[in-house]
Amino acid sequence: MDQQIIHSNLPGTATTETQDVSLDYSLSGYDYILPEELIAQNPVFPRDSSRLLVVNSSTETAPVHHVFRDLPDLLRPGDLLIVNDTKVIPARLYGSKSTGAMVEVLLLEERKYNCWLALVKPGKRFKIGSRIFFTSKDSLQNPSTLTATVLETDPATGGRLLDFDVPDGKPLIEVLEQFGEIPLPPYITSSTAADEQYQTVYAQQPGAIAAPTAGLHFTPELLDKLGDRGINQAFITLHVGVGTFRPVEIEDVTNHQMHQEWISVPPTTVEQIRATKAAGGRIIAVGTTVVRALEGAAQSGDLQSFCGQTDLFIYPGYQWRVVDGLITNFHLPRSSLLMLVSALIGRERLLNIYQQAIAGKYRFYSFGDAMLILPGL
Residue 104 pairs with which residues in a beta bridge? Predict the structure, then answer.
């Protein structure tokens, strides 16, 4: 699917005489300073006790403070939540070279059967043909081994394409529990969270290397309460990869090239969305990955079921096709995710809201608090 970049103004992104329009398309326009102590190192318990900042996308009214478990009262019967059912895999592996030197591998995506694009540290030393040896984590009771050979380099990511020799010819993903661990983002440096706390309660499809974090706030009980109120859920799959967290590195953001990520928008979800809109309901995306999947599947002008790659890049001026509202965490400065949310409510306003969240001691990033952006009346 070709990258789509569209520059039409929307009600939520209209500019004023005092706003520097060029900053919407400049990397420096997405900067803010976050005190280190507001970077959440652990999730709250229970999950739905996180804070929720509620914003109306089409008015300049002040955000309202809630708790995430208030969500059923903030949405309307007939609204439809779209969630990402991807599951984080144990994508970080530790191995060694034939010399005994230690190696760290972060799997990014499977390119073909048991051939994975990966970041390797120290990467510069790994030329084509180099081999990496892995031993199972429980090597005393289950002394399994795994090897990988470097097939080629990947200039776009600086990674390596690794061909894994898996015991018994199994898919690598089936044995990762023996060799790998769940990778947490680099800004989480002192977490005591269990692996299951970095998975959504509805995670089903293994393949992500990072969690769709807006979904971490849901509990089974909250989902049941939403359903009882007539707020249903539908699923897409986007295996979160390097495209989601790769930093934007050029000042003119319109020239940023998103890395492709694999998405699946099934026919049943398309049917639910069409029925919801026909009945006057609203489509609320749970997370920026859901936005990319739905909008990526609608680039022909009409939402269609889709299974494949998308490199859709959304920033202010984007012409929305499917999504009405959004649940999202607070994102890193200069990130494509911050630009996506700016496309919904405007860059300057979003940064002002972030300053209010910082003043209010909201917790940021993956294990942090959330925002609910509601569509205008």
Answer: 94, 121
